[in-house]
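INTERNAL TRANSFER SHEET
From: sequence group
To: structure group
Subject: M48 family metallopeptidase

Please process the attached sequence and return the structure record in the designated field. Keep the field labels unchanged so the import script can parse them.
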Amino acid sequence: MRWKHLGVAVALGAGLAACATTTSPTGRTQYMAYSDSQLNQMGAQAFAEMKSKQKTQTGGQQSAYVQCVVKALVAQLPPEWRQLQWETAVFVDDSPNAFALPGGKVGVNTGMFTVAKNQDQLAAVIGHEIGHVYARHTNERVSRQSATSTGLAVLGALAGARYGQAGSDLVTQGGGTLAQMGLLLPFSRTQETESDQIGQQLMAQAGFDPGQAVDLWQNMVAASANRSPEWLSTHPDPQNRIRALEARTPSLQPVYEAARKAGHTPRCGS
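Return from structure group:
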């Protein structure tokens, strides 16, 4: 019986070693267990399912507004990312939210327009979400969660070999809580901070005012209430986020001004 558990542990450990190492747009080391094509297919399927289950706007001013902002931002991505089949949808939902999925699928809730007061602030939101796609954060997240689950299974198998089922359960159940608190959530905050950086850079390159990212998050803070503490959240503390955006803005102003002089002057509306 012990040899059976050990065999499982060895097999699972070999699966962990199969992850590929890549580098994010900001230079951070990442570990990927899935191909881009796999994630792009999953993103397209999820987007299609969301559109089938939720009410969306067909055409109209807000849809054109979102498409205009997305087009301007995507134009600043490297060629291989511009070649994705980018698609947008406006969901009829009062919550101020937006997202982007692998494969270039961008969704914006109608409630976002009450918080993003102009095209620059909407570009801050969408640029952040595109940053998640560009940095392959979904792949990274599911790869990390898969590796964490596999690692706990390995430890559980070894504990079971030594202490029986009770030992295995203690490791896998207790370890799951520790992994969530100490690995998965903080890592998600790293991704969010990285997307802020990428999104603010993209909006400046596209001719959107990078300083408006600060105003956008101030609006978001005013519209939200009763957040969880930062250490229990997948997102950075809003005030920490605002300070980081403020700190980057001066270095991005020359990028923004150069983009405008080069003819990048988006006229998307609002």
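Handover comment: Residues 1-17, 150-187 have pLDDT under 50 and may be disordered. The two ends are 67 Å apart (CA to CA).
Transfer complete.
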